[in-house]
Design brief:
This protein is an alpha/beta fold and 290 residues long. The chain is built from 8 helices and 13 strands. Bound molecules: the ligand CSC[C@H]1O[C@H](OP(=O)(O)O)[C@H](O)[C@@H]1O and adenine.
Length: 290
């Protein structure tokens, strides 16, 4: 049986985690550029874990400039099998209140200025993202959150916007009333797409910080409101993460939802027409099938 290795991508407010045995910040070279930061590696209850702050320590990278491909490639290169994305988000639902966690299971992608795939001319691939998150990993995250006493909502649609400005009032109302989005953030796309292309199980834990701008009693979202909630949310996220190793276990069976086999039959470019340079860059992401 393969070995579980948990990758954590920490969002706004979550720039480090504690409690890892043998903790060490390591640099990982990627053919897709430099990852957001070094990656904190170690083990938790005997299960290897790798933590990468999405915006870098000190919050250096804007959402449009996060090196999403390098981040996913670097985690894959470290042998990560399961990626937990932790993100701050605004809420479009009264019942999804600041401080609550939402285990996202769908996305609407409104980003427009980010490379969205590892593949392209010279190696074309089409993976399914109809179900963009892994239900098994999401269940582990949900149960761990509940055990930590966090109010958690299972399932929700995350609207990924480009940013960095927040939404207009018209957009906020449209996403909520017409499009049926539940939460909003700026980073889970293309991250989730790339995780699927890299055959990684991916679960998204969205931590509510605000009601965006639609709520008549809360006015418009501002960064002060968000920062006021980030600290407590980050503490809860660390508690959730501590409960993951015992739920996932050290040995890893094939994913029952097929996340780890997403590239089976996905590559359309005939072997003799593949670009050797691109194929070389895909060594970690797609080496299993190339
Ligand atoms: C801190 S406000 C906006 C910022 O926070 C979220 O970041 P992340 O998803 O990495 O937690 C949001 O997507 C924006 O990037
Ligand atoms: N309202 C909001 N819109 C976009 N990203 C966010 N991150 C936290 N709150 C947000």
């Amino acid at each position: 049986m393969a070995t579980t290795r948990i990758g954590v991508i920490g969002g706004s407010g979550l720039y480090q985690i504690d409690g890892l045995q043998g903790a060490e910040w390591v640099s990982v070279d990627s053919p897709w550029g430099a990852p957001s930061d070094q990656i904190l590696t170690g083990t938790l209850e005997g299960v290897p874990m790798a933590f990468l702050p999405r915006h870098g320590r000190g919050h250096v990278h804007a959402p449009s400039e996060v090196p999403y491909r390098a981040n996913i490639d670097a985690l894959k290169r470290l042998g990560v099998t399961d990626v937990i994305s932790v993100s701050a988000c605004g809420s479009f639902r009264e019942e999804m209140a600041p401080g609550h966690f939402v285990i996202v299971d769908q996305f609407i992608d409104r980003t427009r200025a980010r490379p969205g795939s590892f593949f392209g001319t010279g190696c074309v691939a089409h993976v399914s993202i109809a179900h963009p998150t892994c239900a098994l990993l999401s269940t582990a995250a949900e149960e761990s959150a509940r055990a930590a006493g966090i109010t958690v909502h299972r399932g929700g649609t995350y609207l990924a916007m480009e940013g960095p400005q927040f939404s207009t009032l018209a957009e906020s109302r449209m996403y909520r009333d017409q499009w049926g989005a539940d939460v909003i953030g700026m980073t889970n796309m293309p991250e989730a797409r790339l995780a699927r292309e890299a055959e990684l199980c991916y679960a998204s834990v969205a931590m509510v910080t605000d009601y965006d701008s639609w709520h008549p009693d809360h006015g418009e979202v501002d960064i002060a409101t968000i920062v006021a909630t980030l600290g407590a949310n980050a503490d809860n996220a660390r508690a959730l993460l501590r409960g993951l190793p015992s739920r996932l276990g050290p040995g890893r069976a094939p994913c029952p939802h097929g996340c780890d086999r997403a590239l089976d039959h996905a590559i359309l470019t005939a072997p003799e027409h593949r670009d050797p340079a691109l194929v070389a860059r895909l060594d970690a992401v797609a080496g299993r099938v190339l």
